[in-house]
Amino acid sequence: MKTAEYYLLDVFTDQPFTGNPLAVFLDAKGLTTHTMQALANELNLAETVFLSAASGPNHYPMRIFTPTIELAFAGHPTVGTAHLLAELNLVNREHPLVLAPPVGELAVSFAQDSATFTTSQPARVEGSPLNQTTAARLLGLEPSKVMGEPVVASCGLPYHLIELADVASLASVQISPTTWAENVATSGAEQIYLYVVEQPNELEFVVRSRMFCMHTSIGEDPATGSAAAALTGYLASRQPGPLHCAIHQGVEMGRPSIIHTAANGEIEPGLVTVGGNAVFMGRGFIETHENDVPR
User: Fold this and answer.
1) Which of 99, 106, 178, 271 is most exposed, with minimal Cβ within 10 Å?
2) What pLDDT score does 81 carry?
3) 136 and 262 assigned to the same domain
4) What number is the average pLDDT over the span 167-188?
């Protein structure tokens, strides 16, 4: 029998009980992949992180699980884990922190109450099997409420990006399971990110968004850093010069969050920075035994 300790945080927020909840196990030693997946399923949060022992100063291998699958990359686990390590004085905030999920090393920096990481790969943008008509059918909207053709974008995890006409349309979305099964589940990108650009200007894009992923028990996510990175990379590819975004997500779920992103600035072209706050919420313990884990 092994006692596994975990910590809980709310990420991309500075207020408790908002943002996106996250569980972090700081010591994954002795836990098999099956056990990690079972623990993530037991906690039933959007994502759960398992850290291995530091492989060097400020350098931690990281694995990320949803309740049903392991992810190569995710944003709110990266930001939340960085905040937790800083809170517990396990990293030196004056030096870059490196978290290493399967997608590759993510460099994290700290400034005041925010943690910001740089994606390990540039945003890739390609066509989506969804078009304006099928996207509208998927979302239960009139086709006129879908702005242009959707695309698929990824900084390590792919999303169908669908721009909507206004916040009222964003709030009224009703996902069609049939259209999802026919057009999204078979596409190789099983997440959609809906967005409305409320305030485009030279200083900052203010964006409202929602993320849906129907192959997990979560369904909708209140704050999605990997999707925000993909969206920012896509928006940056359409305009010259530096781009800064304040992406507000989770409002319709009663868990408002804010994700700060940037591209086309001082970092390597194509890469995106993603940052935000987090709130430490508590910790707990789970007793595990390998023989009890279903396979």
Assistant:
1) 178
2) 98
3) yes
4) 96
Measure Cα distances from 286 to 45, 76, 142 in Å.
Answer: 15, 23, 47
- pLDDT bin (cut points 50, 70, 90) of residue 294 is low
- Identify whether residues 222 and 161 lie together within a single domain: yes
Whether 20 contacts 10, CB under 8 Å = yes
Give the three-state DSSP class for 171.
Answer: helix
Statement: residue 76 has pLDDT above 80: yes
As a whole number of angstroms, the distance between CA 220 and CA 227 comes to 13
User: What residues contact 220, with CB distance under 8 A and at least 6 apart?
Assistant: 210, 211, 212, 213, 252, 253
What sections of the chain are H helices per DSSP?
33-43, 75-87, 132-139, 167-171, 177-183, 225-237
Q: Are residues 57 and 105 in the same domain?
A: yes
pLDDT of residue 115: 97
Q: What is the model's pLDDT at position 295?
A: 58
Of the residues 5, 42, 47, 290, only one is catalytic, namely 47
Does the annotation mark 47 as catalytic? yes
Residues 47, 136, single domain; the answer is no
Q: Which domain holds residue 100?
A: 2-110+278-292
Place of tokens 């922190």: 97
